[in-house]
Structures are given as C-alpha cells and as structure tokens.
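#lab-general

N.A. 3:47 PM
ok so I finally got the sequence cleaned up, no stray characters, all 469 residues accounted for. can someone with queue access submit it? mine expired

B.Y. 3:52 PM
send it over

N.A. 3:53 PM
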Amino acid sequence: MVDVVIVCFYLLCTLGVGFFVGRGVNTMKDFAVANRKFSSVTLLSTVFASCIGGDDLIGDTERAYSVGIIFLLVSLAQCGNVLNTAIFAVPKILRDFSDKISIGEIMGSLYGKWGRLVCGISNMFFSMGFVAIQVSTIGYVCQSLLEIPYSVGLLIGSFVIIAYSSWGGIKSVVFTDVMQFGVLVVGIPLIASVVLGKIGGIQHLMEVLPQSHLDITPSNKLFYAYAFLVFSFMFPNFLAVDVQRMLIAKDIKTSRNSLIMTATLYVPFYIMLSVIGLCAYVLQPNIEDPNTLFFSLLNVSLPPVVKGIAVSGVLAVIMSTADSFLNSAAISAIDDVVPFLCKNELTDRSKLMLSRVVTVVFGLVSIFIAMGNFESMIEFLLFFFNFWMPVVSAPMLLYICNYKTDFVTYFVSVCGGLITLLIYRSCVSEDFAQASQFVGMMATSFFMIVFGKLNRQLLRLPNVSLVKE
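B.Y. 4:20 PM
back already:
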C-alpha cells in the first residue's frame, strides 16, 4: 500500500509541475519552442529523459536476458549517434534554421510544402507508435509491481501525460522532464545495485552466467547481425524530438554541450540496464513473457518504500519520453499537415487551441494502439523507424553534406528506398531485418544522388540563402 501512495504522490507532483509551468503558454510558438533560453543542464535533463524510455527498460533488459552482453554494444551505439548529431548536425541546423520550430518547417524550406507534408505525416505515425510503446509500459508497471490491472494503470498514467502535455506544450514537457530526470537518475541505479546485491556482486554474476551470454566475438551467431545494427545506429536519425531540442536551445554551444553530456550519461545507464537483464537471467531463468522480466525482477527483489521509489523512477523514464513524442506529433499535425489541408490560414490562437485538442486525440489513439500485445519492444520500436529514416533521415543526411534535390526526385527516391526496405526484409533473417530502416535510409540517399545527377537536380548548398522555398 505504501508503494502505491509513493507512486500516486509522484504522479500528482508531475501533474502539478506540468500545469504550473504551463500557465504562460499563450501562443503556438510558446507551445512548440517556448522562449529558446533553456540552459545546458535543463537541455541535458530533457534530452536524456526524452531519449531513454520504456522501450529501453523493457527492450534492453529483455535482450540482455535473451542474448547476453552482446546487445550492450548495440545500446552503446546510441552514444555515437548522439555525438555525431552534436558534432555535425547541431551547428548546421542552428546556423541555418534557428528561426524554425520543427523538423517539418526545415523540410519545408528544403522541399517545399509537399516535403513538409510528407515529413509531418511521417512524424505523426512514428511518434504515435512511440507513445504507444511508452504507455503500454505504464500498464506493465502497474500490473506487475502495484497489482493494478494493465488497462487501468495504462489509462491513469496516460491521463497524466495527456493532461499536462496538452496544457503547457513544450514548457510543461521540459520542466516535468527535469523533475523526471532527477527521479530516474536515483531510481535506476538503485534498482541495479539492489538486484546485483542479490547475485553477490558483478564478479559472481560473470562467473555464473553461461558463456553464450558473455560471448561478443564473431563465434556468436548474432555477431554480424548486431554489428550491422551497431553501424546503422551510429548515423544521426534526426528525430523530430531531437531536432526540437536543438531548436529550443539558446545557442549552438548550449545544444552541443547538452548532447555531449547526454552521450556520456548513456554509458553507465545502458550498462546498468544490461546488468539488470543479466541478473534476471540468473535469478529467474524461466520467465514466460520477456516483456515482464524487468518488473518481475523488481517485484521479488525490492522491499516496500524502496520499491515505491523505484517504480516512480521507472514511470519517470516512461513519461518523460511519452510526453515529448506526444508534443512532437501534435506540432507536426498543426504546423505541417493542417495548413496544407486548410485554404484559410488559422490564427495563432486557433493553432494553439487545436494543438491541445490534437494532443488529446493522439494520446487516445496511442492508448488504443497500446492495448495490443507487443512480443518484443525493441522489434516494435525498430519497425516504426521504417516510417522515419528513409523518409526524413535520408534527405536531412544529404542536407548535412550540403546537398538537396527537387521534391520530385526526393519523392521518387523515398519510394525507391521503401521498396528496397521491403525487399531487404523479405530476403534476410529476422535478426538482420532489424536494421531495415538503415537500409531504407541509405537506399533513399543513393537514389537521391543518382537521380539528382541524372536530371541535374542535385544542388550544392554552401549556405541557407541558396535553399529554395
């Protein structure tokens, strides 16, 4: 009972902070990027909290449990992704597009209104799928740790997220992320230390694990599939949430520093998740549903009060990701899709009100998706990347290299990339199919370069003044 009280108190605090800081949101710009004066520490908190989600808690621990330490290499590849984004993407995006409020507006500058529409639709699908993963994890948390039915827990947690996200936009999201960051940096290390103590320490864990779970050499049957996945994860993926965090920074230095610090924090965090998964393999080797192993382990390992704090930390991880992607989806809908459908331009107040309504609607759609059962969080997440990387990451990658094409070449190349992706998935094993989004991105990039040269539409962009609206 005391654990439920602690969790309820945390949820109420989150809701209160979200509504309090969201009081001054009166324009669409406030809702999307606020005042662009967030400090490095604030950005670090919101970037880290947004990127680490329920898919990591469940997915990374499940993979460590199932295949061993080799999956840690895939997780740590995210560090390379963030560092490459900080080094190559941040300076160029903030130098050329500091006045924009979303990735959709950037794509609109590069490929016109049709490019903006395609980007907006792609982000809506991707973000709602991502939110669905997070809210489903809330259901698992409540069911496994608090003995609250899955659907009830999912609805309660989702209500809190939808409420403050729709009210305060990015301001509520960022400042609740700061609070959630503080909770998760206490909760996750606490969980790892307790379960590792149950094993008898890291040395004993290494001694009792089977060799198959410690093998990271080419003799491991998954080595080449995961090596390919590691390579694919190193490339910036330009997620709408990540770009939005760049655009709310006050300058290039602040944004870059926050990403470098985030990449540094990734290392111990992912190591702790892998340790938790490996400990679960030793303590509970016969778990039927791998999606519940993280919570099952906590249930048998943590005493009251500590368990309540740990559950709050888990919810902080989940909610900080869900609110960010929910906000991103709403901005894409209002800023990128609705103007294309409406003949008359909406007033700023109308956009703000519609953004709040759309946030609620998208939240409800994500709840509906989450009612389904996901066999593997990681595979479900990677599947949704197929809607993003060939469509948006590819042209943004070319932009970072100072190139663009016309929209027709871009659209034909995207179609070619998606077809290549589908062919690739049908021809390789399930392990290699996990990197299909990267194959699609590279195929789109290749087609854009080849077709662009053939029809003389591959344009060099030395500076933003040459970008055609």
